[in-house]
Specification:
The structure holds 2 protein chains of 2 kinds. In chain A, strands 2, 4, 5, 6, 9, 10 and 11 form a 7-stranded mixed β-sheet that branches. By secondary structure, chain A is an all-beta fold. In chain A, 0% of the residues lie in helices and 51% in strands. Chain B has no helices and 11 strands. In chain B, strands 2, 4, 5, 9, 10 and 11 form a 6-stranded mixed β-sheet that branches. Classes of the chains: A mainly beta, B mainly beta. Chains A and B meet through strand 4 and strand 5 of A and strand 4, strand 5 and strand 10 of B.
């Protein structure tokens, strides 16, 4: 069955280190998204992509970067991890064609920056 | 950009009662409004959605209403059960763009 996966599921890192979170989907969806979830803030968009080689900044993109070299993957990189980036990160994908709007979420990655 | 506000932040109801969660949006170009349920430690999952050309949609005990003029939409859960306890998120998508703007979530507690 098609799915969307994230790895690692849990990560502890130190301030200043570079961290990459992986997101992989097998639906062949054009659109992929990264969100962070913090108590009281819901889901906030970090970066998104509408296709290969396309990336866009969301509302909380500072300190994060993404690249889209193929349809299946959108890795999220924290260039220099900060304690403020301790959060749960969700990747999502959607087909994006007319009438097919639903976003499917990955299982999430809990990141702790010490 | 779009701004989605969601109320209340927490809601406690007795089993069997109804629950209503309300959201407002700011951009009149928004045309798709999904609702997600997130159980503790799990990923958000779509439970119902509505498009701007429809005023109401029902799926068993769940219904969503949309008032385009007032720019608000609501989730209604009837005959609540303990397994309805979760965090619920509303979202809005602007026409022709595929990114979603989420509300801050409502924690629903259904007491047995």
């Amino acid at each position: 069955d098609a799915e969307i996966t994230q790895s690692p599921r849990h990560k502890i890192t130190e301030t200043g280190r570079q961290v990459t979170l992986a997101c992989h989907q097998t639906w062949n969806h054009n659109n992929m998204f990264w969100y962070r979830q913090d108590l009281g803030h819901g889901l906030r968009l970090i970066h998104y992509s509408y296709g290969v080689q396309d990336t866009n900044k969301g509302e909380v993109s500072d300190g994060y970067s993404v690249s889209r070299s193929n349809t299946e993957d959108l890795p999220l990189t924290l260039e220099s991890a900060a304690s403020s980036q301790t959060s749960v990160y969700f990747c999502a994908s959607s087909e994006g064609r007319q009438g097919r709007s639903e976003q499917y979420f990955g299982p999430g990655t809990r990141l702790t920056v010490t | 950009g779009e701004n989605v506000e969601q109320h209340p932040s927490t809601l406690s109801v007795q089993e069997g009662d109804s629950a209503v969660i309300k959201c407002t949006y700011s951009d009149s170009a928004s045309n798709y409004f999904p609702w997600y349920k997130q159980e503790l430690g799990k990923r958000p999952q779509l439970i119902i959605d509505i498009r701007s050309n429809v005023g109401e949609k029902k799926d068993q005990r769940i219904a969503v209403t949309l008032n385009k003029t007032a720019k608000h939409f609501s989730l209604h859960i009837t005959e609540t059960q303990p397994e309805d306890s979760a965090v619920y998120f509303c979202a809005a998508r602007i026409y022709n763009f595929n990114k979603f703007y989420f509300g801050s979530g409502t924690k629903l507690n259904v007491k047995p």
